[in-house]
Design brief:
alpha/beta, Aldehyde Dehydrogenase, Chain A, domain 1, Aldehyde Dehydrogenase, Chain A, domain 2, 2 domains, seven-stranded parallel beta sheet, five-stranded parallel beta sheet, 14 helices, about 40% helix
Length: about 425
């Protein structure tokens, strides 16, 4: 049995210690973590292999997120180095002096204790831990049971690096017991936890929304669209589709639905379908398109779309395709089915690009680019704790600045208000 209240109390106690570390000290800890991950590659991969053996019946998309290899571990270490290179997020945001000499400073400070609940992604363990340390926060992690061994191997490295640098290992803790009831208990710990971030499907997000007693930031549900306009540079379409769909099909910024202008159906759609079939992507075609194309192909990868295929986050090698008569209809479809995560337009028409950007209120809107760019590392944030789809700030990838808050510091020389 784990003592969840003790974990939370220890996190709260260590929060002040971490918040006053210098940026240089925080960076030294992160460098130690990155170097240790490289040194301990074999040990981490051994733990990951054990997790995979225990999770043979895991859904393909979850298994894809769980798998580590030397390349992915090198990428994790490089991501930590990117975080190190970023500016200290705990600097003064604004500073000015009034006419009477009173100094006003808007000072950035850590949020405090952040709880993160996520599934089957060992890289998230490293990302959240290192972003928390760099921003002066502490973290309580609860990953999926399928990745427990891998996460604990990474946790050991992180906590050893904290100890080595004279910082309490309680700054980064992990809820080791996979029993889901601990999530419910964690969500009641508002006296100790300042912020909770769920990274998972609708079920997890809805549960946290209903039960969390502390501030929560939600995100992670994708349903990403690409609209192909009536005029477009044809050579860019296939590469954007392939990259958006297949580079990492199980993540939240992977492409789910293609909306194609009806003027491009005869011209571009056959090429798109042939390419998707060639690379093993199942295509769920709008009924009128399916009736036409089933005559010209015997591929079992071409299927008739149902209503459930619109607004569906596939998390695998499946995409739905629908023709639309105008950009307005494409935008209306996105408004009906999007979760405001990532949506893209492929177009040569400037006014349509502008209209799409103005009307589509997602956290990231792509113009002639892959949906995969909605990512903290790609946007220069070093890494991300999550991608928030909330309309109010913070929104989009949550990097260092998004997990800090601020206080006002007012310095006078005996000033009094008249």
């Amino acid at each position: 049995m784990i003592d969840l209240e003790k974990i939370c109390k220890n996190a709260k106690r260590s929060a002040f210690e971490v918040s006053v570390l210098s940026n240089g000290k925080r960076n030294i800890i992160l460098k130690d973590i990155a170097d240790s991950i490289k040194r301990e590659t074999k040990h981490i991969l051994k733990a990951n292999e054990a997790d995979l053996r225990k999770s043979r019946n895991l859904q393909s998309e979850l298994k894809d997120r769980l798998v580590l290899d030397e390349f992915k571990l090198k990428d994790i270490a490089n991501s930590i180095k990117n975080i190190i290179s970023l500016e200290d997020p705990l600097l003064a945001k604004e500073r000015y002096t009034r006419d009477d000499g009173l100094i006003i400073v808007k000072q950035s400070i850590p949020v405090g204790v952040i709880a993160a609940i996520y599934e089957s992604r060992p890289n998230v363990t490293a990302d959240i831990s290192c972003l928390a340390i760099k921003s002066g926060n502490v973290a309580i992690l609860r990953g999926g049971k399928e990745s427990l061994g891998t996460n604990l191997a990474l946790l050991k490295i992180i906590q050893n690096s904290l100890r080595k640098n004279g910082v309490s290992p309680n700054a980064i803790q992990y809820v080791r017991d996979p029993d889901r009831r601990h999530i419910n208990r964690l969500l009641e710990m508002a006296d100790y936890i300042d912020l909770v971030i769920p990274r998972g499907g609708k079920k997890l997000v809805n549960m946290v929304s209903e039960k969390a007693k502390m501030k929560a930031i939600f995100g992670g549900i994708g349903v990403c669209h690409l609209y192909i306009d009536e005029k477009v540079e044809e050579k860019i379409v296939i590469p954007i589709i392939e990259n958006s769909k297949t580079q990492a099909p199980s993540v939240c910024n992977a492409l789910d639905t293609i909306l194609i202008h009806e003027k491009q159906v005869k011209n571009l759609l056959p090429e798109i379908l042939n390419h998707l079939i060639k690379i093993g992507v199942e295509v769920r075609l709008q009924s009128k398109l399916f009736k036409h194309y089933k005559k010209s192909t015997s591929s079992k990868l071409i299927k008739n779309a149902t209503e459930n295929d619109w607004g569906q986050e596939f998390l695998g090698l499946t995409v739905s395709i629908k023709s639309v008569p105008s950009i307005t209809k494409a935008i209306e479809h996105i408004e009906d089915y999007s979760y405001s995560h990532t949506d893209a337009i492929a177009s040569n028409i400037k006014k349509n690009q502008k209209l799409f950007v103005e009307r589509v209120n997602s956290t990231a809107v792509m113009i002639n680019a892959s949906t995969r760019f909605n990512d903290g590392g790609q946007l220069g944030l070093g890494a991300e704790i999550a991608i928030s789809t909330e309309k109010l700030s913070p929104r989009g990838p949550l990097g260092l600045n998004e997990i800090t808050t601020y206080k006002w510091v007012i310095k006078g020389e005996g000033h009094i208000r008249s």
